[in-house]
Amino acid sequence: MLKEERQNFILHEVNVHNKVLTTYLVEKLGVSEDTIRRDLNELAEAGRIIKVHGGALSRSFHNSFNSTDIYSLAEKKAIARKAVHLIQDGMFVFTTGGTTILEMARMLPENLRATFFTGSLPAAFEYVEHPHIDVILIGDRLSKNSRITVGGAAIAQIRQVKADLCFLGTNAIDIHAGLTDNDLDVVQIKKAMVESSSRVVSLSISEKVNTSQRLKVCDATDIDTLITELDPDDMLLKPYRAAGMEVL
Amino acid sequence: MLKEERQNFILHEVNVHNKVLTTYLVEKLGVSEDTIRRDLNELAEAGRIIKVHGGALSRSFHNSFNSTDIYSLAEKKAIARKAVHLIQDGMFVFTTGGTTILEMARMLPENLRATFFTGSLPAAFEYVEHPHIDVILIGDRLSKNSRITVGGAAIAQIRQVKADLCFLGTNAIDIHAGLTDNDLDVVQIKKAMVESSSRVVSLSISEKVNTSQRLKVCDATDIDTLITELDPDDMLLKPYRAAGMEVL
DNA sequence: CTGGTTCAGGCAAAATCCTGCAACACATAT
DNA sequence: ATATGTGTTGCAGGATTTTGCCTGAACCAG
């Protein structure tokens, strides 16, 4: 087997499984540990994989490992700062869960008077502290993963409202795949919110732009406004602007 | 499993649940306590989590940790300890808000499997951490004073359920005036819960026994069980026992 | 206060890694 | 054909990392 073949196999393996063990490759490819190690070093050198003790990780996996919550706090605050300007007195607003939404909740102007509908427990906790925000909690089964209420009753409650704004804390957005997520219950809640809102706003840190997950919430064209921490003129966002989306 | 995978899992766990126990990770990941401890130390060193005795917390949670009403905490814990024994596997349970209820939530046995219905935001926060407790959040307008949901929709949701138990965090109880409160919205929620439960349990610290407020929730005879921090034989509780109430 | 739990640091075994070196294959120049 | 250079591979060894166990200290609830 050629070296290039071998390295292609390794890359494929890493991309599919997000990780690979040295020992596994030794057995699978029938070469010595040293050879595998050299391959991994070369691939890591070229930036194709992340080498760790005992094997290697895919770049995306490592990124998700490094970019959780606190890490990209500054970006999320920047997004939140842009988002709060969209809310005006008297508005009805849907919000999902997620840490970006939480940052937004903490930044709401003291004198804003609006009504927020949410099934997110942490978000509700923030809103309820605000002197003039009315909070309507959407009730149903509380999902332990996402800490938002999910289920048919929640969706029915959402459908009863026609909101001015809907803020979606977004896991993945892509011009072709649209807005996607990986939790079916959450997807259904988001879908209902999108359908019940005049204006849909997606809050997405840039590293989630042009990525997609398994389950579809809505088409890119259903999103009215896209907010990232980047400058609106950034090249990355050009296709979204071209598709008629407002980019902030 | 690679070390990075493990630490990634830990981070994810902490970010989702705001906290994680060492023992939980040991079992879940199948490695020794020492390894988990080392992982937690490394993550704490890197500023990704906050290490505490027994596990770790998310940074955001640790920062926003507001020590709530610790007045009469010892008494409330004593009450909570008695109360949890009433809950059995498979039960449907209503709970109101209040710090005594919160203490009870923190004391639920790890292996208890039950379904809790509540409109209390802080209580839901505690329940959702529990591995086997299903939480049904009662939705409606969130009252800023009491941090529970109130209103007609909430009452309608309560009426749809017939629970085995109802725990009332009680402001005032009197053998003649019955169970009373001073917030009309809260009173209506409590009323609905009392009517929809087979067994009504009042959690009252002794200083609230034999006091009354303006608005009536229910008669003393509607209360099946009264729990205080006192010995059940205490003279103060005698009239309640005489009225047929179970006193714990 | 007391008993049980959790923690920190030292230690040893095992796994993993790196470096240098020799063997081999292949291409190219002489 | 032979010599030379380049690239690849496996191996030996010593260094490094990781992990589990141990002991005594620190911590916490009742």
TrEMBL record, chains A, B:
Q: Does the keyword Transcription regulation apply?
A: yes
Which SUPFAM superfamilies has this protein been placed in?
NagB/RpiA/CoA transferase-like, Winged helix' DNA-binding domain
Q: What's the superkingdom here?
A: Bacteria
Give yes or no: UniProt keyword Iron.
Answer: no
List keywords of the entry alphabetically: DNA-binding, Transcription, Transcription regulation
What parts of the sequence cross the membrane? Answer: none
Describe the location of the HTH deoR-type domain by residue ranges. 3-58
Pfam families for this protein: DeoRC (PF00455), HTH_DeoR (PF08220)
Please give the name of this protein: DeoR/GlpR transcriptional regulator
What is the native source organism of this protein? Chitinophaga chungangae
